[in-house]
Amino acid sequence: MDTKYLYKRNNVWWVKLAVPSALRSELGFDLRKTTGESDIEKAIVCREKIIAELKKKFDPEFNEKLSSNEEFLNKVTYLDYASTTPVDSRVVEKMKDCLTIDGAFGNSGSRSHSYGWKAEELIEESRLNVSKLVNCDPREIIFTSGATESDNLAIKGAAYFYKNKGKHIVTSKIEHKAVLDTCRQLEKDGFEVTYLETDEFGNITPEQVSDAIREDTTIVSLMHLNNEIGVINDIEKIGDITREKGVLFHVDAAQSAGKIPIDLNNSKVDLMSFSAHKIYGPKGIGALFIRRKPRVRLEALFHGGGQERGIRAGTLPTHQIVGMGEAFRIAHEELDKDYKKINSLKNRLYDGLKDMEEIYVNGDLEKGYPGIFNLSFNYVEGESLIMAIKNIAVSSGSACTSASLEPSYVLRALGRPDELAHSSIRFSFGRFTNEKEIDFTINLVKKSVEQLREISPLWEMYLDGVDISKIQWAS
Amino acid sequence: MAYSSKVVDKFEKTLKDPKGASVGRWKPGDKDFHRVGTGIVGAPACGDVMKLQIKCENIEGINKIVDAKFKTYGCGSAIASSGELIDMLKGKTIEEAQNISNQEIVDILELPAIKIHCSVLAEEAIHKAIDDFKSRRNND
To answer: Given CA atoms A301, A304, A309, A315 in this order, what sign does their dihedral have?
Structure first.
């Protein structure tokens, strides 16, 4: 039987075609595509068609497409929106008006002149804009320096205020460090913390939360949208449980506000943290929602001039707040439009990459937020891939860049093997990402993964049929 | 983290021209395989695996490394370190190769402190490859 160009992987036949040497620097060493058939005769039938498809990539037209990518090779395409976003130019315009002598530079605490009044007016307008995005009363919003401060204020503030009721906190293993480290700090202070496990996609069920709540539990803190894998918690259902059990519910919504709908008036969330710079606002400003009915009380972290009803002292940074307000106003107006666009970009990226061998989606492909797309490219180390695709700014799930050499704690919490966690890349896109950038990314990632696999001893073992998990690795 | 330009250069050259950078392997059945020593160090779970092969020739009673190949799974520094090691090995006697220290690689590539383990891995790889070569000789 003529099995030329065919090889078998995981019981399915694949076509592998060597790339002419002149094109290797663009395309890598070989091109592969699955026939989708486990039967050799059926695979032979589709072989020609697939070879023709793969050969298209050798065509001048395809090469033209690659060379049109040259415009991207001279710059770095930003696909790291989950770490921060550029500020929308409409936001910048508003902020500019709050800084100079002819603008609203005044201290909103000054009651005796119009400079103060003007600043106060702009701040209240911003507070209203923030509250509208998440459907709450503007009096329930207080401004902070960012989501990290909001998380600290919510969790420590509630834990200390209600400490006579109990000293137990419930959170999860895949929370942001702002929550995890705050909880660790409270542990040093005699509090007890339960860290919920997730399933392999990062989901936490309301039943898990219910089971973890004890007599002495005062607060449950869970994120709305995970920053590494995009998984979304069902905060409505979890809120029903916490309210019924008389426990406070804090939600870190740094990643979700302005990206997916939030309706605080129709949910039972008691505290919610927000950030401006994840949604095209400036860095250094965030907010905390503190429910009025039923009233939530917190112990303040900052003491001083009594601003923000004494919960957060410090002169209000008018330009930052106005920036956040405008960013949230725009997000409210454009949420559907942004979401649709981002969803189509994610589908385009996934369609472009999904035929690659040995790639794994981290998170929930169906139910997760499409703007965060985390993939593991098996047998390729994440940091080397980031270096190879240096014209694209992304994050590695693997925190190899830190001294710890630990792979992502989030991916480990999902039960991903360490080697897959080491091989992960987070692509995150947003309002200013376009289709051409996605196409460029697809080409560059495919080529680079192929190149790195060519020099990977693990890929060689995989192709030889060696089970890497069965090897005794000396470490 | 910013890499030194030395690491970036070595890494990029290796990707662009793997053969020229001595990426590859000798496998059982290859001619001369009995003169190849193989060292594999690191672990996938730690994010680094280095596979180094040396081919030796007995020239006037002394075993000289006439060729070397590698494959590395790991960060850019690990890949650059293996490539740098290969450059050092060729033409050396086994005794000379045995004495290569990781510090030489650190100096050439200007590796930062948190990447020194990459050079240590390279040093371990050459020791393992030499041991493997010697044990094969003993079995002859």
So the answer is: negative
B115 within domain boundaries: yes
Nearest Cα residue in chain A from B16: A25
CB contact under 8 A, A451 and B40: no
Residues of chain A positioned with their CB less than 8 A from the CB of B28: none
* B60 in any annotated domain: yes
Contact A31, A58 (CB under 8 A): no
User: Which segments within chain B are labelled E, that is strand?
Assistant: 36-43, 48-59, 62-73
Please indicate whether residue B56 is annotated as part of the active site: no
Threshold 0.90, pTM exceeds? no
Buried b / exposed e over A338-356, threshold 16 CB at 10 Å, is bbebbeebbeebbebbeeb
Interface membership of B2 toward A (CB under 8 Å): no
Measured CA to CA, the distance from residue B85 to residue B76 in angstroms comes to 14
- Cβ A212 vs Cβ A194: under 8 Å: yes
- Domain hosting residue B93, numbered range: 5-135
Interchain proximity A401–B1, CB inside 8 Å: yes
In CATH, what number is assigned to the domain containing residue B17?
3.90.1010.10
Q: In Å, how far is B106's CA from the nearest CA of chain A?
A: 17
How many interface pairs between A and B have CB atoms less than 8 angstroms apart?
90
Residue with tokens 């693997």: A398
- A416 at B interface, C-beta within 8 A: no
| B118, part of any domain | yes
Q: pLDDT per position in chain A (475 positions), as tens?
A: 778 888 888 888 888 888 877 777 777 778 888 888 888 888 888 888 888 788 777 765 554 555 556 667 778 999 999 999 999 999 999 999 999 999 999 999 999 999 999 999 999 999 999 999 999 999 999 999 999 999 999 999 999 999 999 999 999 999 999 999 999 999 999 999 999 999 999 999 999 999 999 999 999 999 999 999 999 999 999 999 999 999 999 999 999 999 999 999 999 999 999 999 999 999 999 999 999 999 999 999 999 999 999 999 999 999 999 999 999 999 999 999 999 999 999 999 999 999 999 999 999 988 899 999 999 999 999 989 999 999 999 987 544 444 445 788 999 999 988 888 889 999 999 999 999 999 999 999 999 999 999 999 999 999 999 988 888 887 5
Complex-level ipTM? 0.94
Point out the residues of A that are catalytic.
Answer: 400
Residues 6+ apart with CB under 8 A from A326: A88, A90, A91, A94, A95, A126, A129, A281
The number of domains in chain B is 1
Q: Does B48 touch chain A (CB under 8 A)?
A: yes
From the candidates B49, B54, B118, B130, give the one annotated as an active-site residue: B118
DSSP A470: G
What one-character DSSP code corresponds to residue A107? -
Q: Which of B18, B25, B27, B46 is catalytic?
A: B46
Q: Which of residues 442-471 of A touch B (CB under 8 A)?
A: 448, 451-452, 454-460, 468
Residue B122 lies in a domain: yes
Residues of A in contact with B23 (CB under 8 A): 454-455
